[in-house]
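REQUEST ID: PR-0412
SUBMITTED BY: lab tech R.K.
PRIORITY: routine
TASK: structure prediction, single protein chain
INPUT:
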Amino acid sequence: MHKGPERIRSFDIAKGISMLCIIAGHLSVPEVNAIVFTFHVPLFFLVSGCFYRVPSSPMEALKKRASRLLAPYVTCAVLCSMGKGIRLALMNGVSKSWKAVAGSFVSALYGSGSPKDPSGDISSFGAIWFLLALFWALTMYDAICDKRWRTLAAIALFAIGVATRSWWLPLSIQPGMCAVLFLHIGHVARERFPGSLGRGKVPLPLAICALTIWAVGFYCSDKHMSMVRCYFPCVPLDLVRALSGSLVVLWLSGLIERVPLLSDGLEAYGRNTLTVL
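STATUS: complete
OUTPUT:
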């Protein structure tokens, strides 16, 4: 019987920390956003890459992925749209609610997670854009069969996602393109360092180096990237900050793992990020 991927506590704790940071990032506090936006979403894609396995049957993997990622998205979209319709029907009457419900379904189909995307007149559907982006990222990564071309292909997809952000495609396809690079980095880390980074363990010297780079990054620019919008004001700096910030969070997760009361709560939170999302 095929077993699912092994759970690693430090990764679940890191996901729990990142989900708290995502919530904090929606409070619209500039000082908080300047910190959390450097790493919180990329870390999820990096962790997904650490657990990525080349599927023996791509079609079977696609079906399972659709069930795990697309089904929750569709369910949430239907419930949210209908809930919005019922609320508006009670407040303003049935006739005015249908237009709002139809608009909500269009937003769900479009799949944007940001009100600032170039579409302009199509409203954001919220944080569940991540499910669509992860689905596309994993599916695209499956399609890169030859290991020799994976790094180049991941960079190319990232570049296309960033370059085409002015002509926004539906279903969060472009954020998925950008996410492939982080997915690939996580996958390579697991392959090259299976006993350390592949298990969420960051050596102290590397953690100190990452923390230093991450801190210096704040002095280099006060602008931050936005994965949902494929917005990277300075690509090299944004990538470095995302990787160094993620390493710091993973190192911190390893320390928290030794504190049962705190680690148990964050681990449970990290295990259920889909429900929280």
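NOTES: The first helix runs from residue 9 to 25.
REVIEWED BY: pending
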